[in-house]
Amino acid sequence: SEGDLWNHSVAASLAAELLAKQTKHKLPPETITAALLHDVGKLVMCRFLGDDLLSVLHQAHDDGGLTRMQA
Asked: pTM score > 0.70 for this model?
């Protein structure tokens, strides 16, 4: 759901921010933004793909043993 996706994106962004503070390696300033936006394609797919196609993708993942990327 969109709410779950948002929660996941915020958690990824916060994790990137903590990682940036904890690591000895300097992370690019875009890291936190990239973490926040890394799943935006899922939101676009859910908005613009029909329920029938989304159902086929879910079935390929669940019943066909495919990863989400393969489906």
From this structure: no
Residue 60: CB atoms within 10 A of its CB come to: 15
d(Cα 45, Cα 26) in Å, to the nearest integer?
Answer: 33
- State the DSSP string of 20-67: HHH-SSPPPTTHHHHHHHTTHHHHHHHHHS-HHHHHHHHHHHHTT---
Residue 14: Cβ within 10 Å count: 13
How many other C-beta atoms lie within 10 A of the C-beta of residue 39? 14
Residues 15-55: tens digit of each pLDDT = 988 888 888 888 888 888 888 888 888 778 778 888 888 88
Would you say the C-alpha torsion 22, 27, 32, 35 has a positive or negative sign? negative
